[in-house]
Specification:
With 380 residues, the chain is mainly β. The protein contains four helices and 16 strands. A 16-stranded antiparallel barrel has the order 1-2-3-4-5-6-7-8-9-10-11-12-13-14-15-16. The longest helix is centred in the N-terminal third of the chain and has 16 residues. The protein is globular, with a radius of gyration of 22 Å. The chain starts with a helix and ends with a strand.
C-alpha cells in the first residue's frame, strides 16, 4: 500500500510544479468488499472466495491524474492497487488523448479496451448497479492494452453515436479462473460502436481479434514440455497457444426509464488451433429504483463444448492420452448464475451494495457454489 501512497503524493506534487497553462486534476475511486461462500467450502468460479470471509479479493483503491497540456492534448494516468494482488500499486492507464477537430480523438499508450458495456469504468464499482459485473460475461482476463485508438463521436438526430478503432497488443498478467497468468497477445485489433437514443436506450456491438502468443502458468505448460520432449511437438502445437488467432465479439443493450433499468450482454470468445473451447456468455439484469434504493435481479449463463476432435488419431494406449483428454475436457462449461442484489446510495458519491449469487454447473465433477458479498463503493 505504501507504493500507492507514494504515487498519490507524486501525483499531488504535479499540480504544484506544472506549468501555469496545464490544468491538472486528481480524482479517484475505491471499494471495500467482503465475500464468503458460507458453509459451502467450494470456491466461487472466476473469484477466489471460499467459506472464509475475504476482504481482499475484490477490494481496491485507485488515483487518477489528468493534465491538459493545451487545447488539443491531455494526458491521463491511473494508479490502481488491488486486494487480490496484495494492494501492490500498478500503472493501469497511461495515455495521451489528442482531439482532432470536433469529432475525432486519438489515444496513444496503455488504455482500456472497449470490450463490454461497462469497460470504460470496469473497476469503478460506484458506476454500475451490481456489486461486480456478471462473471458469466466479464471473464476475459484482461481489460487494458498498449496501442492507439481512434474514436469518432456524432449526433444523429436523437441518436448519439460513438465508434472506436483500436490497434496494438498486450503483454502482462491476465486473470483466468481466479489466477493471474503470464499472457501475450500480438496484432490486437478491434472496433466497438455504441448508439444512445434519447437518454433511455443504449445499443452496443464490439469485435476484437489477436494472435495469442502464449498463456503461461497452467498445468498445460508441463504437458507441453512432456509432449515436445517425447517427439510429439506437432501434437503439443495443436493444444497450446502459439500464435493462434483469438476472436472476441459481443452485443449489448440497456433500457433506463427512470425507475426501471434493464441491461444485458452476449459475448463469444474463441481461439483457433488450440484446446480452448469456443465460449458463449450472456446475462440479463433488471432493477427498480425506490428513491435511493434499487433491488436487482440478474440471471446469466456460460457454456462451451470441449474440442473432443483433438483426440482423433491419438491411440488410447498412448501414455499421454489421459492427460490430454483431461486438458481438453477441462475446457467444457455449462454454468448458470442467478443473483439478487441491492444498491443503496446513502451518501453523495458513496453507495452500499449487497449480493447473493447462486452458481450451478451441469458438468460432472464441477462443484456448485453460493456467494454472499457486501461492500461500500465510492468516488472522490
Amino acid at each position: 500500500m505504501n507504493r500507492l501512497l507514494i504515487a498519490a503524493a507524486c501525483a499531488a506534487a504535479l499540480s504544484f510544479t506544472s506549468p501555469a497553462d496545464a490544468a491538472v486534476s486528481i480524482s479517484g475511486f475505491g471499494q471495500v468488499v467482503v465475500g464468503t461462500t458460507g458453509d459451502d467450502a467450494e470456491p466461487f468460479p472466476e473469484r477466489n472466495f471460499d467459506s472464509d470471509k475475504d476482504f481482499k479479493e475484490e477490494s481496491l483503491f485507485a488515483v487518477q491524474v489528468s493534465a491538459d497540456l493545451n487545447e488539443h492534448i491531455d494526458v491521463i494516468a491511473q494508479v490502481l492497487a488491488r486486494g487480490d494482488k496484495d494492494f501492490d500499486a500498478e500503472l493501469a492507464w497511461a495515455y495521451a488523448n489528442m482531439r482532432l477537430g470536433d469529432a475525432f480523438k486519438l489515444k496513444v499508450g496503455r488504455q482500456r479496451l472497449g470490450l463490454f458495456r461497462y469497460s470504460d469504468y470496469l473497476d469503478v464499482g460506484y458506476a454500475y448497479p451490481f456489486i461486480r459485473p456478471p462473471v458469466s460475461v466479464y471473464n476475459l482476463g484482461f481489460s487494458n492494452a498498449d496501442g492507439l485508438s481512434l474514436s469518432h463521436d456524432a449526433q444523429l438526430g436523437e441518436w448519439y453515436s460513438q465508434a472506436q478503432l483500436f490497434v496494438g497488443g498486450y503483454s502482462g498478467d491476465a486473470r483466468f479462473g481466479g489466477t493471474y497468468l503470464d499472457t501475450k497477445l500480438k496484432s490486437l485489433i478491434g472496433a466497438s460502436w455504441s448508439m444512445d437514443y434519447s437518454d433511455w436506450l443504449s445499443l452496443r456491438a464490439t469485435y476484437y481479434k489477436a494472435d495469442v502468443e502464449y498463456v503461461r502458468g497452467t498445468s498445460l505448460d508441463t504437458l507441453e514440455a512432456l509432449l515436445t520432449g517425447n517427439g510429439l511437438g506437432a501434437l503439443a502445437s495443436t493444444l497450446i497457444y502459439d500464435g493462434d488467432r483469438g476472436v472476441f465479439w459481443g452485443v449489448g443493450a440497456q433500457i433506463d426509464r427512470g425507475n426501471v433499468l434493464l441491461v444485458g450482454e452476449f459475448t463469444r470468445t474463441s481461439i483457433d488451433d488450440s484446446l480452448y473451447a469456443t465460449t458463449d456468455g450472456w446475462y440479463l439484469s433488471g432493477g427498480y429504483r425506490f428513491g435511493n434504493l434499487m433491488p436487482l435481479l440478474t440471471v446469466g449463463a456460460k457454456s462451451s463444448d470441449a474440442k473432443l476432435e483433438l483426440m482423433d488419431g491419438i491411440p488410447t494406449q498412448n501414455p499421454f492420452y489421459l492427460p490430454i483428454l483431461g486438458a481438453v475436457l477441462s475446457q467444457a462449461a455449462d454454468e448458470d448464475y442467478v443473483g439478487l442484489g441491492l444498491r443503496w446510495d446513502f451518501m453523495s458519491n458513496v453507495a452500499f451494495k449487497a449480493d447473493y449469487t447462486r452458481y450451478r454447473s451441469d458438468i460432472p465433477g464441477v462443484a456448485d457454489s453460493d456467494l454472499l458479498s457486501a461492500g461500500v463503493v465510492f468516488t472522490f
